[in-house]
UniProtKB/TrEMBL annotation:
Cofactor detail note: Binds 1 [4Fe-4S] cluster.
Top-level taxon of the source organism: Bacteria
Biological process according to GO: base-excision repair; mismatch repair
UniProt entry tagged with the keyword Protease: no
Name of the protein in its database record: Adenine DNA glycosylase
Family from the record: Belongs to the Nth/MutY family.
Keywords: 4Fe-4S, DNA damage, DNA repair, Glycosidase, Hydrolase, Iron, Iron-sulfur, Metal-binding
An MF annotation (GO) of this entry: purine-specific mismatch base pair DNA N-glycosylase activity
PANTHER family: ADENINE DNA GLYCOSYLASE (PTHR42944:SF1)
Cofactor: [4Fe-4S] cluster
E.C. code: 3.2.2.31
Length: 348
């Protein structure tokens, strides 16, 4: 029995029941693939269901506002995916009449769609013979064949794509691509893989050479940056609060947050008072308290945010203040959403 046949046999008895497995609708497949990038199925599934309910077809997503899309995406992270999702839906409707392209090559023209997503849609929806290579597939192939070429090197990406093509099942590409990804997620997991009852264990190079924990190899290219965030939770005399929208190309683009004071190191009360006086004209009658004595460390892929929340009560009235009852209407980063939940009973 070949490598691909063993994978398919395993899949027939072990696959999870997931909503996108029972459809060939490219909109549904595309939605699931974008949502599950860098996201576990358990975390992404509720979002997939919410999006399907709110936007049952690509036209509904295209006609939604960006704020609606970001609000539904809130908490899933990597918000550029949500913005690309929205832009692609508009493109499919405007340039393709609401029908997704049906070839790998054409799918690559869509915003936010790269090799992996195009391969997945083309093979699952249209039976095109394109191998998928995601993190799970890299791991299965690297371990089984004992490949130590870094998966995030130029040569590694090219090598694994070709290897995936050589071993793919050409008679049932739709199920095979889903099978090898599922195999990597469940059987050949990153930690504690189930090697003892693996159908590939007799010929797995990594298992034979005791390399399972060392493969796949990945070059650590990115240095994590530390940033120090001070959020000013400002309440006026009418219990209105200040929110502002993030602009530019940085993290959380177009999401909303409390006024932010970023410092080079951990801040103190004196710095906060000076900033409030200089930038908001708040006087000595302003009450300032620190919500969290220990900084909250919010870890993103390339940066760690060391965050303090300062509660600021002023006797002024904000012309641009937002009623507390309307806070939940705004798409915010999960860091802000968690703070809102925590403070509702105490301050709101």
């Amino acid at each position: 029995m070949s490598f691909s046949e063993k994978i398919l046999l395993w899949y027939s008895g072990n696959k999870r029941s997931l909503p996108w497995r029972s459809t060939r609708d490219p909109y549904k497949i595309w939605l699931s693939e974008i949502m599950l990038q860098q996201t576990r199925v358990a975390q992404g599934l509720p979002y997939y269901l919410k999006f399907n309910e709110a936007f049952p077809a690509v036209e509904h997503l295209a006609n939604a506002s960006e704020e609606q899309v970001l609000k539904l995406w809130q908490g899933l992270g990597y918000y550029s995916r949500a913005r690309n999702l929205h832009a692609t839906a508009k493109m499919v409707v405007e340039a393709y009449g609401g029908h997704f392209p049906n070839t790998y090559k054409e799918l690559l023209n869509l915003k936010g769609v790269g090799d992996y997503t195009a391969s997945a849609i083309a093979s699952i929806c249209f039976d095109e013979l394109q191998p998928v290579v995601d993190g799970n597939v890299y791991r299965v192939l690297a371990r089984y064949f004992g490949v130590d070429t870094p998966i995030n090197s130029t040569s590694g990406v090219k090598y694994f794509k070709q290897l995936a093509r050589e071993v793919m099942n050409t008679e049932n590409i739709r199920d095979y691509n889903q099978a090898i990804m599922e195999f990597g997620a469940i059987q050949c997991a990153p930690k504690n893989p189930k090697c003892s009852n693996c159908p590939l264990n007799e010929s797995c190079v990594a298992l034979q050479k005791n390399l399972v924990d060392l493969l796949p190899v990945k070059i650590n290219k990115t240095k994590v940056k530390k940033r120090y965030f001070n959020y000013l939770v400002m309440l006026d005399t009418e219990n209105q609060i200040k929110l502002q929208q993030r602009r530019g190309k940085g993290i959380w683009q177009n999401l909303w947050e409390f006024p932010l004071f970023e410092t080079k190191t951990e801040s103190n009360m004196s710095e906060i008072k000076h900033h409030l006086t200089s930038n908001f004209g708040l006087g000595s009658s302003t009450e300032i308290s620190l919500h969290n004595e220990d900084q909250i460390v919010h870890k993103l892929s390339h940066q760690h945010l060391y965050t303090k929340f300062w509660i600021v009560k002023t006797d002024a009235r904000f012309d641009d203040g937002i009623a507390l009852r309307k806070l939940d209407e705004f798409p915010v980063p999960v860091l802000i959403a968690d703070l809102i939940k925590t403070l509702k009973n105490s301050y709101f």
